[in-house]
Every structure is written in C-alpha cells, then in structure tokens.
Specification:
8% strand; disordered C terminus; two-stranded antiparallel sheet; 489 residues; alpha+beta; five-stranded antiparallel β-sheet; 9 strands
C-alpha cells in the first residue's frame, strides 16, 4: 500500500541490533548478513519519523499504541528476488529485542502487525495526505489566482486539480482535524464527539489530533522536488536497483512518466519557442513566485523563478504525475490492503511486547481494533478507493482548441493506451503471483459524487450520543454503497 517507504540498505543503522547469528537459517545457506548487505540484497523500512509518536495514546478515553520500528527485508535470489521480512525491532533503545521468523509464530505475527500499523500511519498522513493533497493545494490556488484561463500552463494543469480543494476541505473535518472543543476542554476525539465528527480519529492509533500532527511532523523535512517520483526513487536507491526484479510501482510508473513528459513537452513547445519566452512571461513568473512566497512550498524548483523551457517541462510533468499516476498508486491500493483490518490495522490496542514468548493468541486478538472501529476503517479506505469518473488523458473540459495542441493530446491518449497494453502483457509474464493494478486505467483522485454526498450527510449529522443506532446504520449504508461500487466496477 505504501510503495515509497522502502529503501536499499548497505549498512545496518546504529540503533538496530540485528546480528548475523539472529538470521541463521533465515538467509540462504552459505550467506551472511554482511555479505548480503554488500551484494545489495538487503532493504529496510525505517519509521524514524514516528519516533515522537511512540507509545500510548488516549483516544476517546481508550488506550492505543504506536511503534516506530525497523524492518529488514531480504531479496531472496533463489526465489526470484522476491522480498521477505527477516528481522524487526519495535523499540529504539539499547537492548531492544529483535524479532525474526525463527521466533514463535505469535511473536513474529505481533511484530509484523506493529510494522503494518506504522506503515498505515506513514502512508495515510505522509505519502497520501501530505504529498498528494496538502502540498498540492498551493499549486492549485496559484494556478487559478495567477494564470488567466487562456494561459497554456493553466490549460495544461487545471484538469489535474479537479476536486482537490473540495476533498481537502472535506478531510479537515473527517480525516484530520485541529483541536476539538469538548465542554470547554480539548480532547483527542474519535467519531461523533460533541465537536467535529472526526472519522479517522477512531481508526488510527494516534487519534484525530495525532493524524494532523503526523502530517505536520512530516512536513518539517518535506521538499517538493525531492519527493517527486524519479528523485525519490534515486534517493531511496530504488531507481537502478536490479536486485529486485519485480517493483511495478517503479517499472509501471516510469512508463507513464515518459509518456506524460513527452506530452507536456509537446504542448509547452508549441507556446514557448525559447527560454526567453519563459523568462519574459510575467504571468508565468508570477505563478512560480506566488507558489513559493505565498504558498510557502518548500523545494519548488528555481525558488520562485523559472529559467527555461526544459525547467518548465520538468515542473509541469512532475505536478501532473503527482496528481494523477502517483496518487493512483498510493490511493487506490488502500482497499486491497487496508480494508482487511487484520492485514493492516489502523490502530493497535496492546503495547509493544518487551520480551519474547509473552505473545499468545489472546494477546493478538486484544491488539485488534473493536468491531465498530474496524467497520469505520473499512468504510474510509473503501470510500477513498472509489473508482474515479475521470481518467488521465480523457477530460470532460476541453481547454485546448488549437489543432497543434489537439494533435499532441491525441498522441498522448494513444501513447497511454499503448502503455496500458504493455503493462497488461508485463503482468502475464511477471514472476509475481500478485497483480499490481493501481496504475491501470491511470485513475485520478476523484470519488463518485454519490459517495461524496453520502459522506457529507454523515459528517453533518448531529449525534448527541456517541455510537447511536442511526449513526451506526449510516455507516453501514455508506459501507454498502462502497461495496456496490467496487462490485460494479
């Protein structure tokens, strides 16, 4: 669900106490941890960003828990380089136990659940909310404010911001929230408090306040250019990594990126014949300056000034890719992983085990969220993963009218169809038994309007008593709507 977290690992972090002896019988015969690190066969999930959120969180008067684990993966060469977890450390302190597949099955399962829970939080409030929604809003506002509708950059970008402001505003009262007043006090509230109806507050370990705080914490180290697709792949060591033969987020994404880049270049070169056309465009320069100065976007290339056609192509390509293909990859995957609560629980209700052998079946059951909170998680991830009504390359609005631009658009659509056909062939010959379909149809962020309206009604409904029958029924209605659309599509 979160394909942008994993990194290559050439050295074990100083606070991760895994040793070669711990992996005896787990790594292939005749290999060592040091040797596999040197060979590039080791990968890591490092949830350092969650360190300030570790431990107990009281949400709606209930205790929940979050860890900031390390998780080590091995790309098994005899097994077609498929990655598998081989070591997990849940605490960041000296002497913390390291869990491996050699441990008791319940111990290993509990460790993996804490990793999945941490990944759920990073995905929702860093990868998805921050990268795809919050940091895109200043770009959307600047485009509408600073560029006239006849400007080619407005025409190029505007379709890809469709619904962004609406869904971001909706999220402020449902997925993330500021402090909620409760009888003159501030509480970390879940669903149906006396203040806002914070649906996602009842799903996560950190609650409604923590959801927002997590995005804020991630923004401290955010840099837009570094977060862009190719730059992120390079930074994580995954761009040219041949050790993992099957990384469809990278492989399919690069196919789409190339087609999109050719399209953006083809459109912009019609209107900008030279670099001086770019530097001399006061409206375009005002747009870039507004993004940096008023939008406070960190890491926008050029620092508020665009110097060349090449740089403009680079900026627009990455903006569109983030709003379309990147968002499709990290959003539409949610239902496949997060709708199965046992696979990726949004909250955990037992603290991190501190020694081996103390996890039994009851411990695992006690870790899981309650039935009602599980329903909320299912509803939300299904709502977020709704089939879209718009597709990349096929817009309802016709912004370009010139024959030359329409010709470039037609080639773009044809190229996208060719890429989709190539992706389908790739799936047939892929060594993986799991299909990666989240780039297929190149789906956008918009959800169906009927689901939006159902959710809006649900959020607006006043509930004097927590979890009353009508509210529960409303959630079931929304869940059935989501299920129906997934079955239909």
């Amino acid at each position: 669900m979160n394909p942008v977290q994993i990194c290559t690992c050439d050295a074990i972090p100083s606070g991760f106490y895994v040793t070669n002896d711990m992996l005896n019988g787990i790594l292939p015969p005749g290999t060592t941890l040091e040797g596999e690190l040197s060979a590039g066969h080791i990968f890591i999930l490092d949830f350092e960003s969650l360190e300030n959120f570790v431990g107990e969180h009281v949400v709606s008067d209930e205790k929940r828990y979050l860890a900031a684990p390390y998780c080590l993966f091995h790309a098994d060469e005899p097994n077609n380089h498929l990655m598998r977890p081989v070591a997990i450390q849940l605490q960041r302190k000296e002497g913390a136990p390291v869990w491996t597949p050699n441990d008791a099955p319940n111990d290993w399962t509990a460790a993996k659940l804490f990793v999945a829970n941490a990944d759920f939080h990073m995905h929702q409030f860093r990868t998805h909310a921050l990268f795809c929604h919050i940091t895109q809003e200043p770009l959307c506002v600047a485009t509408s404010k600073m560029l006239p509708e006849c400007h080619p950059v407005f025409k190029l970008l505007r379709p890809h911001f469709h619904g962004l402001i609406f869904i971001n505003d909706l999220a402020k009262g449902s997925l993330v929230a500021a402090k909620v007043p409760m009888n003159g006090k501030e509480r970390n509230e879940g669903v149906f408090g006396d203040g806002l109806s914070i649906m996602f507050g009842n799903v996560t370990s950190v609650g409604a306040f923590g959801n927002a705080a997590l995005a804020i914490e991630s923004y401290k180290t955010y840099n837009m250019e570094e977060a862009w697709f190719k730059n992120d792949l390079k930074a994580r060591g995954m761009m040219d990594c041949s050790v993992i033969g099957n990384y469809p987020y990278r492989d399919d994404g690069l196919l789409i990126f190339e087609v999109l880049e050719n399209y953006v270049k083809g459109i912009l070169e019609i209107y900008f014949k030279s670099d001086s056309d770019v530097t001399g465009d006061a409206e375009l320069q005002g747009w870039a300056n507004d993004i940096v100065k008023n939008g406070k976007v960190k890491g926008f290339p050029g620092g508020g000034k665009i110097e060349s056609v090449e740089q403009l192509v680079y900026i627009c390509t990455n903006i569109i890719f983030t709003a379309s293909a990147y968002h499709a990859a990290v959003n539409f995957s949610q239902v496949d992983y997060g709708a199965v609560v046992l696979n990726m629980p949004g909250s955990l209700w037992r603290d991190v085990p501190t020694k081996k052998g103390e996890v039994d079946e009851q411990f695992l059951l006690d870790m899981m969220p309650t039935k009602f909170r599980s329903i909320i998680q299912i509803v939300i991830v299904m709502f977020l993963s709704q089939p879209p009504d718009r597709f990349l390359g096929n817009t309802l609005e016709k912004y370009f009218t010139e024959d030359s631009a329409l010709g470039v658009q037609k080639k773009f659509v044809d190229d996208l169809k060719a890429v989709e056909a190539k992706m389908k062939v790739y799936k047939l010959v892929s060594l993986s038994s799991i299909d990666y379909l989240f780039f297929n149809s190149l789906r956008w962020r918009q959800a169906r309007m009927v689901i939006r309206m159902t959710t809006c009604c649900l959020l607006a409904f006043p509930t004097p008593r927590r979890y009353n029958n009508f509210a529960c029924n409303a959630f079931f209605v929304l869940l059935l709507n989501c299920c129906a659309f997934h079955v239909i599509h």
